Recover the amino acids of this structure.
């Protein structure tokens, strides 16, 4: 079973924003890292869905889909996608001598992933596709 990007974002939000009165059995850093994994999965799935609509052959290679995104979704969306994906990737990896990610940092990434899901759901930016076709 594959969860939708929105479901993954909701699960990440539940990890980060615990309801008052609930007992937290996991440390904040561990919850933040788990939320980062869920958010990166959501962003990856949103990118796959975007490229499946635009051109299905772009879903095969992850690096290319990020590099070519600027030509289809616009410079701002591509930059935000690269920055967010890189930050989430760094937060996902466990390093012995580093502190886990801060929940506030991952919460900021949660808001960014939510905005990116909406931007990628909209389809290709027509101005970018036209400009790419003119060159």
């Amino acid at each position: 079973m594959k969860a939708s990007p929105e479901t993954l974002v909701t699960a990440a939000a539940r990890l980060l924003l615990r309801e008052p009165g609930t007992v937290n059995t996991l440390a904040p850093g561990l919850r933040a890292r788990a939320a980062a994994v869920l958010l990166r999965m959501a962003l990856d799935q949103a990118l796959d869905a975007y490229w499946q609509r635009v051109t299905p052959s772009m879903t095969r290679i992850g690096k290319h889909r990020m590099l070519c995104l600027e030509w289809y979704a616009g410079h701002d969306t591509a930059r935000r996608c690269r920055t967010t994906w890189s930050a989430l990737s760094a937060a996902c990896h466990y390093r012995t001598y580093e502190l886990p990610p801060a929940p506030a940092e991952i919460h900021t990434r949660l808001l960014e992933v939510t905005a990116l899901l909406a931007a990628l759901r909209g389809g290709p930016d027509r101005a970018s596709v036209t400009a790419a076709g003119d060159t």
The longest helix spans residues 28-54. Confidence is low (pLDDT under 50) at residues 126-135. The chain has seven helices and no strands. The radius of gyration is 16 Å.
